[in-house]
Specification:
150 residues; alpha+beta; seven-stranded mixed sheet; 4 helices; globular
Length: 150
């Protein structure tokens, strides 16, 4: 892997994001990318979406929201989605994206970042724990809420 770089999601990169592949079993834990990219249109002030590129190839995507006025605490600073192409998983792309998102959260004055996920085989929990998220509770629907305190 060459040096990764971060870019804003754009018309140029969104097609590549929508074409990224997943490892078998992961698809049940991820909504279509189009759900996450719609957030920029709905609220561009609070939405933060970036892609990771290795040379000129999109290898990962991250979507977060930073809204200190949001009444529900775990939606104030939240990682909505992270996708790393199946062929590039295990190479540090996900950690690179999370580190960039945490830097953005700090710059915006946030005190924590949450992530909400469903537990299960092939689910994202091991990854989130490896990058520093720790479970802190559940949503009213039984999903796990995990947090990194900044």
């Amino acid at each position: 892997m060459t040096e990764l770089r971060l870019e804003e999601l754009s018309a140029t990169t969104i097609v590549a994001v929508n074409s990224m592949s997943l490892k078998p079993g992961q698809e049940q834990f991820i909504a279509p990318v189009s759900y996450g990219t719609a957030a920029t249109v709905v609220n561009p002030r609070t939405s933060w979406q970036r892609v990771a590129l290795d040379r000129n190839e999109v290898v990962g995507f991250i979507s977060a929201s930073f809204d200190p006025d949001e009444p529900q605490e775990y939606f104030q600073s939240v990682l909505w989605r992270i996708n790393v192409d199946a062929d590039d998983q295990g190479r540090g792309v996900g950690r690179f994206l999370v580190d960039a998102m945490l830097a953005e959260a700090r710059e915006r004055g946030m005190t924590h970042v949450d992530v909400i996920y469903e537990e299960g085989d092939d689910g994202p929990q091991p990854f989130f724990e490896r990058v520093g998220f720790q479970p802190v509770g559940e949503t009213e629907f039984g999903e796990t809420v995990a947090r990194i305190t900044l």
